[in-house]
Amino acid sequence: MELLILKSAAAYIRVKEGQFLRVGLDKASVFPMDQMDLVKTHEAHLKTQGFESVKIKRLILSEEDI
């Protein structure tokens, strides 16, 4: 499974109630690949709000038996 995620420098981004928060991976907002336009909009807003080194990343999840 592939999802989209936003990063600012070493932190991940959580989108909550119209705000952007720097968080760890376990709290970050993730988006399906078909929401790329929304993620690009968030990316632009993060940059205008002064977040540094903003990047869209592809998060690849796999499931395996242990």
3D structure, described in words:
- The structure is a single chain.
- This protein is an alpha+beta fold and 66 residues long.
- It contains one helix and five strands, in the order E-E-E-E-H-E.
- It has one domain.
- A hairpin with a 2-residue loop joins strand 1 and strand 2.
- The two termini are 18 Å apart.
- 11% of the residues are buried.
- The mean pLDDT is 97.
Key traits:
66 residues, 5-stranded antiparallel beta sheet, 5 strands, 20% helix, globular
State the end-to-end distance. 18 Å
Series of secondary-structure elements, N-terminal to C-terminal: EEEEHE
How many strands in all? 5
The geometry reads as: globular
Helix content: 10-25%
Low-pLDDT sequence parts: none
Category by helix and strand content: alpha+beta
Q: Give the biggest beta sheet.
A: 5 strands, antiparallel
Radius of gyration: 12 Å
